[in-house]
Amino acid sequence: xxxxxxxxxxxxxxxxxxxxxxxxxxxxxxxxxxxxxxxxxxxxxxxxxxxxxxxxxxxxxxxxxxxxxxxxxxxxxxxxxxxxxxxxxxxxxxxxxxxxxxxxxxxxxxxxxxxxxxxxxxxxxxxxxxxxxxxxxxxxxxxxxxxxxxxxxxxxxxxxxxxxxxxxxxxxxxxxxxxxxxxxxxxxxxxxxxxxxxxxxxxxxxxxxxxxxxxxxxxxxxxxxxxxxxxxxxxxxx
Length: 238
Known about the structure:
The chain is an all-alpha fold.
């Protein structure tokens, strides 16, 4: 019985992944090419115009994170604009499988984003005649993936609760409040700013430990986000 139930659950999740993939490619091949080409193109342009490797790496991670986060939002926008949400009651039927399938699809995209960042930084290093170590490229890729997983886990309940546009407004407002609070504390409390600098320095010195801690945070965030998303989505009419 358990084996059959697990097989049915996996089939339902795969159907959701397939549905999200079809939604993504429905925008056309040109959209996909631009989506996957802009980060390598921009980082190589930065490298060719004299930027430092650190700034190129930061731009690559930031560009991939923002771009792939918008992919998540576009999936919800597609459902609303094209009246596709009615299919959510059919493929798959179980709403929990829909949420798990959406997370699985996003994590797969996050892994692609990490690979894209690693390749972009490696190409930029070649252009700048500063070869990038394999371990550094892996570290940048891992940071990209973990950052995206956390961001998607945070925004997912917003996207299930509100329309995509309202969710974006709430997300931007929340980011603004958090950043404003941190900046305000750094200005008002020199000790807080010193603590932040020490934390950043410790992370750079102990990258493996920092990535492991980040992974644990991501797993907890995913579990918490999926429960909240199911609670919100489960109370809605499809």
